[in-house]
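Holo prediction. Input below; ligand is S-adenosylmethionine.
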Amino acid sequence: MKFLLQTQIGVEKITVRELLSKIRSTYSIDFLGFVPHKNGIVQIDWRDKSRFEYQNLGTVEDVFFVVNYVKNIPYSIQAKDIVKFIDSRGLRSNIDYFFDVLNPFSSDKKFRFIVRKKSPHSFRRIDLQEVIKTLFNKNIKRVQVTAEEGVKEIWVTLLKNRLIIAIRLTTKIQRQGKYKTQGIPGALRPTVAYAMNFISEIRSNDVVWDPFCGSGTIPCEMVEHFKFKRLICSDVSENALFITKSNLENVENYKRVKSKVSLRVENFFASKSYSDLIITNLPFGIQHGRDEDFVRRFIDKIQSIKNLRQITVLFPELINISGWQRTSKFHLQVKGRHCILQVLRKL
Ligand SMILES: C[S@@+](CC[C@H](N)C(=O)[O-])C[C@H]1O[C@@H](n2cnc3c(N)ncnc32)[C@H](O)[C@@H]1O
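Structure of the complex:
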């Protein structure tokens, strides 16, 4: 059984680490397969009788179950000939597996088809769509093709000479997180915030601090999924703190750990707070003046914080601090901009 896990560009290797640490079953991982490296997709081949528990993967935003995957479709063929390459028995048995084992929704038969074509075949996307819909209508009794919004989705992708037909398993709530009722322009995606917490290897006796917390995505993911001794959320903006607080209140686990969480309106450079770890994404872009100056002040401040052992920072440039060592770095795309997710440890 093939699954495609969609994360963010550059987070793929963190998703692989998360899979290895959480899921003990028989499967193989491949992110160099038919999908090019660094497109935010990790492919897994599940060879286990148990159900693939994708729901507890924090770096994964979207999960697709591949019901058919065909390689080497000649470029010379017509749309109608595509069906000759599709194994309809395999397709039927995968659809059965979806309904009997995987289906996280109801047994509702309705599916909306999303068809994408990025190939030099001479037929149109719409021709491909009609051919696949007819195939399903004729052969797959458990599926009813509809144009209705909000139903389950089957994604059909013709990518060069490969055809992938996959059912989207994740719901809108899983994709967007449950707690974010309010955001700010620079807010992170929950999957990236989760990845930042995950690679930080937070210990249960750590005091952790996000000094530029914005809408609180990093703290919210931490409260929901990680253990810590204390968590400090601070930001120079009163409005940001207000948003962080209301987002935290939507996190189920927050009521249990509320007494361990401090919310402070403060300028990082003037703050007297201290912690074992800092996990944050620094403000960048024109509204914050020249990045160079900001980075220099950030580095100076880091060197003055007592007990600080490690920082996890997302920023467009590499951060070098004398007496500190970079232990990992990942090149990410955040809102279309190149950013480096980096972990530095005090020597
Ligand atoms: C990129 S945003 C953080 C986004 C956050 N991770 C989220 O997901 O919503 C950066 C934040 O840094 C705050 N900020 C800028 N300068 C600051 C300073 N000197 N001290 C504290 N916070 C500051 C801004 O108010 C902004 O909320």
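The longest strand covers residues 324-334. That is the main takeaway for now.
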